Amino acid sequence: MPRLLEMILVGAKLITRADGGTLYTVNDDKKLSFEIVRTTSLGIAMGGTSNRRVQFKAISLYHRDGRPNNERVVAYSALNNATVNLPDVYDDQGTEFDFTGPRMFDQRMNYRTRSMLSVPMINHDGKTIGVIQLINKQDKQNSAVMEFDNNDVHLVKSLASQAAIALTNKRLVDDLKELFDSFIKTIATGIDEKSPYTGGHCRRVPELTLALAEAASRDNNRMKAFTLTNQKRYTLEVASWLHDCGKLSTPVHVVDKATKLETIHDRIHLIDTRFEVLKRDAEITKLTKLLESGSDNPEAEAIEKCYTEEIQALNEERDFIRHCNAGVESMAHELKDRVKKIATRTWRNCEGQVAPFFSEDELNNLLIHYGTLNAEERKIVNDHIVVTNKMLESMKFPENMKEVPEYAGGHHERMDGTGYPQGLTREQMSVPARVMAIADVFEALTAEDRPYKDGKKLSEALSILGRMKLQNHIDPDLFDIFIHEKVYLPYAREYMDPKLIDIEEPFEIPGYPFKMP
């Protein structure tokens, strides 16, 4: 935008031979902002490509009491869509304009403002969006200051009209980009808010992704063929925000499944109740036997002992099932066998019917080998990336952003081709897609808001990444850069509990130390 505005003003000065000129734009506060200021004879160049910020205060279009500020020439032009052509601003008789500003400028700069031309920039809706103001037209022969003529007015009006179109189009593009950016961030926020346990994931992954991508772009050895241009950076940022958009279709109770028996609620409480029923049944059986045999029953001690042993066994089995339900460790065969043995118990339900202690679904979930998701639920979770790909591939991205689906859709792929959903290998994936895969894993490992695990220490997270490198699951070169450039450290300091940041130099982890080429 600054370069465009500068071209407009410089063009107007050139075709009219004006010594000075200022381009103003109307801002949201109903003020005229100084965008570009040029005075050739004084060597003044502010705004645009000059690297000098314009230091003048914006000019209000209205007074504090709401009256239009028609005393200032430039404000008058903007408010009334009017062109103002003055041969000499010092000869202000017969005008209502206030030239205090130009006089003060002249006194301070030892300058003499004479001729002035103010032309509004009017868009297609008939609304003034800016003003071009030119000062002191110079004679071609001797540089004497002269009045702007009708031809100058016509030319500057034509330029202002074209400039208004260009400026409006640029603002439209910027507004559409801002709308698009806010839209994708709204989607990401909706995904995060859908589950209190994954809140922030869609916001943290872009930050980590861009940090690693920038580090890779700086590397002149392993990633010397990769350059992160501004456009590629923006495309990657968009892809990072949208990488989990498919989770909009994933049921909340699956995403949030903290235990093996959890559906809409945790069914461990139903099983706790059944254990209590069995314990009361055991107590009733004991009391019944004691009543039937009378007070002098010699078997009373044996009956009491049998009851105590049964209660102890039920308590141990209940605690064991609770532990299995948490899914915090792999289920060894002997543990699965014990679950199956407990499943042979029966209990009497509320209808008085004898029923299996576990339903088939409960038993299958308790026998999950690792974690809390059964095969069907894991497929539902994994399918979020399939839905993500469908959603993104259906979007009409512009040509310079066509890589968004590929970048976002590869964060669960592995370098050896064992990932999902497409089983891509390293050679089939772009560098940005491989970058996002590492960022997604590291964020998940260090996140403290997951229902099925605690956030890991920094050393543990890096060790897991190191093993993934050795197993050819993540890109080895990007992992090396991730460690060597300490990409993890600023992120950890920002988002991890300080108690979990137990190292800064990861010397004793798999895949490290190594020597960068």
TrEMBL record:
Q: Which CDD domains match?
A: HDc
At the top level, the lineage of the source is: Bacteria
| Entry-linked Gene3D superfamilies | 3.30.450.40, Hypothetical protein af1432
Sequence ranges assigned to domain HD-GYP in this UniProt record: 295-497
Q: Which Pfam families match?
A: GAF, HD_5
SUPFAM superfamilies linked: GAF domain-like, HD-domain/PDEase-like
Which InterPro entries does the record cross-reference, listed alphabetically? GAF (IPR003018), GAF-like_dom_sf (IPR029016), HD/PDEase_dom (IPR003607), HD_GYP_dom (IPR037522)
Q: Which GO terms describe its molecular function?
A: phosphoric diester hydrolase activity
Q: What is this protein called?
A: HD-GYP domain, c-di-GMP phosphodiesterase class II (Or its inactivated variant)
Q: Can you name the source organism?
A: Mariprofundus aestuarium
